[in-house]
Design goal:
Elements: H1 2-48, H2 53-67
Helix pairs in contact: 1-2
């Protein structure tokens, strides 16, 4: 009986560890995606700085729409 209880406890702990690892990996992927989107937005906005007037305004608006700003 002690062996089966130990196996059950080990299985539960293993499952919990696996779930925690998946959650952490998901959070890391989401954070990386956010950082990449922010960096791409910054680059797009820099490109807009070379323009002037309405063209610049349109460029910035498009960058904001594309990158969710």
């Amino acid at each position: 009986m002690k062996t089966s209880a130990a196996n059950k406890a080990a299985s539960e702990k293993s499952g919990e560890a696996g779930m925690k690892a998946k959650e952490e990996a998901t959070e890391a992927r989401q954070e990386a995606a956010t950082e990449k989107r922010d960096a791409n937005y910054a680059v797009a906005k820099e490109k807009c700085d070379s323009l002037a007037g309405d063209a610049k305004d349109r460029c910035v608006d498009e960058a904001k729409a594309k990158y969710g700003k």
